[in-house]
Each structure stands twice: as structure tokens, then as C-alpha cells.
Amino acid sequence: KMSKTVLLEVKNSIGYITINRPEALNALSSQVLTDFNDVLDQVEQSEEIRVVIVTGAGEKAFVAGADIKEMDLMSPIQAFEYMTFANNTFTRLSDLRQPTIAVLNGYALGGGMELALSTDIRIGFEKTVVGFPEVGLGIIPGFAGTQRMSRLIGTSRTKELIFTARTVKGQEAYELGILNKLVSAEELLTSAEELAAAIMKNAPLAVEKAKHVIQVGSELPLKNAIRLETEAEALLFSTEDKVEGMRAFVEKRKPVFNRK
Ligand code: DAK
Q: In sequence order, what are the residues at sequence separation of 6 or more whose Cβ sits closer than 8 angstroms to the Cβ of residue 63?
């Protein structure tokens, strides 16, 4: 369909998700969230997609936040429903079995920052602008930004960012640990693709299990998290790719993995 506000393209086992509403700096309207869910359905069901790259259409923005014009008209109940829908969508993104990389090609503010925090790895450049403008609008980050940012960079740094609503550019975002990589404008997409290629060299089920254990384990007491790791590890001993990976090492050749 021509009107899609979220696009999915699959190439070389990478799923490229593009938030495609450049006239509103890719702001997250309910339509965007609905289309994003359709794309997540496809990514979840795809046997081809091994890594996901999320970016924003146009030159200026990744995502400039929740749609302020739409929020302006909401009743508390509508706000509750919108926020629940967005949170469910972002949790689906964060729970994808495939590793996800956000390419922050410009503004990633409010809900856009929160979308990026729901991916595994973030890449930015000098013109990346991140931040939480919410308190300036009379609200707080409502798509788990208070929680996911705290878990990423700590509560004190998160409080400073949220209380002041100040925006942070690429270099500082990198120093704060919000960005994994800071690259040049030309390298934004290629560095994400290189990262994807480095991930895809490895056994897919092992990468998926590692993601799951890190994700779920971070919410558990250490003892239980270590137990989860042990059980995931033991399960991987039942896979063909584990046999192949170790055999290839012994035979001094490159492994060929089949996600089996
Ligand atoms: N929503 C709707 N439209 C937006 C938008 C947004 N967040 N951001 C930009 N646009 C639109 C602009 O209105 C403009 O459209 P026209 O007026 O031309 O029709 C177009 O995109 C281009 O934007 P600008 O003309 O403003 O572009 P500039 O380069 O001058 O400025 C900017 C770029 C990113 C600095 C500026 O656009 C800006 O400050 N945007 C807003 C950033 C922001 O405050 N984002 C929202 C953060 S709050 C919830 C709870 C919490 C949340 C949601 C729901 N519930 C309880 C329901 C979370 C909320 C947030 O995300």
C-alpha cells in the first residue's frame, strides 16, 4: 500500500524498518504504531531476517516523539489507551528474537528516544539529537523512557536528562553511553550493516539465546539469572549449529550455520 507510515524491506537477511512520515519528522501517530505492529508481525514470522535495522525517513529525524498534535486532543482514557498501545509495541520490538540496531539519523526525542531504547544497539552521528522534552510539555516520558534509560545509563544521569528536558548531541550521547557508536554521516547505515554482518557470522540460535538471557536476566536476581543462563547454554548443546561450530574449529575451517 502507498500510504504505509512504516516500511519493511528485506535484503541480505537484514530487515530494514523505516518510520516513514518525514513531513511530521516521523512522529509516532496511532497510524504509525498500527503500521509498526504490522511490520513486527512480519519480522516475527520471517525465517529470512536475522538482524533488524530501524531508522527514520528523511534527512532530519529518526523520530521526533509522540505525535503532539494528536496527544493535544486526548482525554485521560484515550491517553491511557494510546500509551498502553505504544508500550506494547515497544515491548514487542525489544522482545524480538533477532538483534535490533537503531540508526539515529537525526532527532530522537521523547517517544523517539524511547523507541531507540527498545532496540539492542544504537548508532548515531554528530547531528543525532536525543533527549526527553516531556516535562516541558507538562507530562513525563510515557513509553518506558524513565525505566529503559535508567537501566542503560543509571538513574542519576537519567534524572538530569528528564528534569532539565535538555537535548544532547551525538558526541555527548556517545559519552553518556546512549550510543554504542558515533560515526560520520556517510557511515551511518554502512556501520549498522557491518555490525549486522559481524553478528550474522555467528550461530543464530546462540545469538538469540544470548539476547534472551541478557534481557530476561537483567530483571531477575543474579542467582536466578545465572540459572537461566545455564539452562539456555545446556539447550544450545542440543543444536546442530553447536556441533558444527565446534567441529569447524577443530577442523580449522569456517562454520556453516543453519539455525538448527
Ligand atoms: N508531533 C507532531 N508533529 C511534529 C512533532 C511531534 N512530536 N515534531 C515535529 N512535528 C512536525 C511539526 O509540527 C512540523 O509540522 P508543520 O507544522 O510543518 O505541519 C514538522 O514536523 C517539522 O517540524 P519543525 O518545523 O518543528 O522542524 P524544526 O527543524 O524547526 O524543529 C524539532 C525540529 C525536532 C526541534 C521540533 O520539531 C520539535 O521540537 N519537535 C517536538 C519534539 C518533542 O517535544 N517531541 C515530543 C516529546 S513528548 C503519553 C505520554 C507520554 C508520551 C506520549 C504519550 N500518553 C500518556 C498519551 C511521550 C511524549 C513525547 O514523545
A: 19, 25, 26, 27, 28, 56, 107, 108, 109, 111, 112, 115, 116
* C-alpha grid cell, residue 3: 500510504
Query: pLDDT tens across 31-57, in order?
Result: 999 999 999 999 999 999 999 999 999
pLDDT tens digits along 65-124: 999 999 888 999 999 999 999 999 999 999 999 999 999 999 999 999 999 999 999 999
Q: How far is the CA of 64 from the centre of ligand 1 (A)?
A: 5
Ligand 1 atom 22, closest CA? 24
Catalytic residues: 114, 134
Atom nearest to 65 CA in ligand 1: 61
Atom 27 (ligand 1): residue with closest C-alpha? Answer: 25
